[in-house]
Hints:
The model has no long low-confidence stretch (mean pLDDT 75). The chain is mainly α and 164 residues long. Helix 2 (22-39) packs antiparallel against helix 3 (45-59), helix 2 packs across helix 4 and helix 3 (45-59) packs across helix 6 (118-135). It is built from eight helices and no strands. The chain has one domain (7-163). The chain has helices at 7-17, 22-39, 45-59, 65-86, 92-114, 118-135, 152-155, 158-163.
Amino acid sequence: MNEKASLWERVWIPRFRALKKPDAYLYILAGVLTMIGLWLPPLNFLFYIGLMYPLYRSVQRQLTDYGLFYYFIPYSLVLGIGVWNEIFPWYTGILLALTLPDLFARLGMKGRQCFKSVIGDYIALPLLIYLFDFGMQKLPLLRQIHMIPLLSVIYNHTAVLSTA
C-alpha cells in the first residue's frame, strides 16, 4: 500500500474486502454463538461451539487478524451499545463498537504469537476472551453475562483477583 495512505485505507478497506470471503461470515457466526453462550446460561454450550471454529483455524495456523476482527464484532457491538445507552452520549458507543474489534484482533494476534507451541494455540483465544470479559464486567449491559462453566471457578473469585 501507499506510505501516505490514510488510516481508513490501511485498516478498513482490507477488512471490507475480506467480507467477500465466506470465511468472514463463519467467524461472525462463531462470534454470535459465543455471545449467546455467554449471555444465556441454559445455552452455554453454544459458547463452546462458537469457539471451535477459531480454535480450529488457530491450530491450523490459519487464524488471521481479519478472522479475529470478525469474530469479536458481536462482542464489541454488545459492548458499544451498552456503553452508548448508559455511559456515553451521542455516537461514542457506536465508534467504540466499530474500533474495539480491531484492538481485540491485534491484541489476540500478539497474544497468540507469545505462545509458540500447539498447546498455546488452544489456550490463547479462551484466555483472551476471559480477560476481555473480566475487564469489562462492570459495564451496564454486560452485567447480565454469565461466565461459562469452564472458567467459572476463576470467575467466582473476582474480588480476590481485582485486589491482587
